[in-house]
Structures are given as C-alpha cells and as structure tokens.
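Extended Data, panel c. Modelled sequence:
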Amino acid sequence: CKRAKEMIQIVTELYVFEGVVFELGLSIGIAEKKHQSVSMEELIRKSDLAMYESKKAGGNCYTFAD
C-alpha cells in the first residue's frame, strides 16, 4: 500500500527539538469494507487487531486485516 509506506517513511524520520533527538515509530492496521453489512465498529476492531500484528512484527510497518 503506497500511502501506508509513505506515512511510515515520513513519521520515522528523526526529529530534533531543542537539541533533543526524537525517533518516532508507526504501526498501521488496515481493514477493508468488502460488504455493506460490515459495521464501522467491526472495521475499527479489525484494523486495531491488524495494527497489533504490525507492532508484533517489530513496528514501522503495516498489516492488512483478514
């Protein structure tokens, strides 16, 4: 997913604020609404689970929900 890769690249750059270096990470979970009957709550739940899979994989990546 091109957008997810771009977001990770932007966020994971080093930032310097008042002489302190900050390194941020980003873990993304992506859920797709394949059927009209899928609720917003279900999409959020699935994307949340996918995000935790990204975190388990070491972060700074994205995972699609099953």
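Strands lie at 14-17, 20-23, 27-30, 61-64. This feature is highlighted in the accompanying rendering.
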